[in-house]
Inverse folding.
């Protein structure tokens, strides 16, 4: 079977992505063929495209999609043709009209959740789920700091943390983004370009600091984030949009109050099927009841992925972005 996909033959800038025809193999025993209806755009796609996270060349990028099952392998019992499914896992290959996927990495999309919502929220939403419910389990009354509060994960974390009874402090790059974050449950947006976010956070918390910082920015925010934590606080470094964090003298964690540091990944948190299903189920539940709204603020045709990546890296996007095959 033939289909079209974005292919990367040499890593580099957005222009490294090309739209071309590819062949789709028949599904193996434990695989499913999916015809995509929507594909999620995520910052990790930039890391793969640029070569920061190496992948064997040539490859089709993308880790998140939703669509309809077209065919199933001989050993697949959980899914049938016509089922609506979504995923946010390896293997790479979401930037395609049709693809083959391991059945044990898929979840069914429940009624009340659209394909575009599912594609927009699986990776970012399950990231928010493990951050708030497992890495550091947010309790009512906690105050948290989330960097890039107006981004895809940021807006979901703000809403979900608020739903859990937390006070949310978030860093943003502009007044427009501050307003967006505020509308999604961020109690204290901080304009990091014009304000010292450490001083502002200390002021908000009466000098105490916060029990947890969720940081996907990396190089530009890492060390200052440590200064936002109270003793025994947890630094959760889950991304590096500004660049890699410099090598760290772990003595710094002791000096700043016996801090905990973790560098988690969604793939580790959803490696077991039971964890994947539980994470997706909890996400679908908070979305279905309206506690967390998925904001799809940009859509692009899949063949225009180059422009989508340019806008993402220029921080022109807010909320979630979906590519349409």
């Amino acid at each position: 079977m033939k289909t079209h996909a974005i292919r990367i033959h040499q890593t580099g800038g957005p222009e490294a992505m090309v739209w071309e025809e590819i062949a789709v193999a028949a599904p193996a025993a434990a695989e499913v063929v999916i015809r995509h209806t929507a594909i999620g755009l995520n910052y990790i796609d930039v890391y793969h495209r640029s070569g920061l996270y190496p992948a064997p060349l040539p490859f089709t990028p993308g880790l998140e999609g939703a669509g309809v099952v077209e065919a199933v392998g001989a050993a697949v019992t959980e899914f049938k043709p016509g089922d609506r499914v979504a995923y946010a896992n390896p293997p790479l290959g979401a930037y395609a009209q049709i693809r083959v996927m391991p059945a044990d990495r898929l979840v069914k999309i429940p009624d009340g959740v659209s394909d575009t919502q599912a594609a927009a929220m699986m990776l970012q939403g399950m990231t928010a789920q493990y951050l708030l419910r497992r890495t550091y389990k947010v309790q009512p009354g906690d105050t948290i700091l989330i960097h890039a509060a107006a981004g895809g994960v940021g807006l979901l974390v703000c809403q979900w943390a608020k739903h859990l009874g937390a006070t949310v402090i978030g860093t943003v790059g502009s007044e427009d983004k501050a307003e967006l974050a505020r509308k999604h449950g961020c109690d204290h947006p901080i304009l990091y370009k014009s304000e010292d976010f450490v001083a502002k956070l200390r002021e908000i918390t009466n000098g105490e600091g916060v029990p947890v910082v969720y940081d996907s920015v990396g190089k530009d925010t890492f060390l200052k984030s440590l200064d936002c934590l109270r003793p025994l606080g947890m630094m959760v470094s889950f991304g590096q949009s500004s660049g890699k964090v410099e090598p760290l003298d772990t003595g710094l964690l002791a000096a700043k109050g016996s801090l905990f540091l973790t560098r988690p990944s969604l793939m580790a948190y959803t490696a077991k099927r039971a964890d994947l299903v539980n994470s997706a189920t909890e996400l679908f539940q908070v979305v279905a009841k309206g506690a967390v709204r998925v904001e799809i603020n940009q859509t692009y045709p899949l063949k225009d992925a180059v422009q989508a990546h340019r806008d993402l890296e220029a921080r022109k996007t807010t909320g979630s972005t979906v590519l349409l095959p």
About this structure: The chain has ten helices and 15 strands.
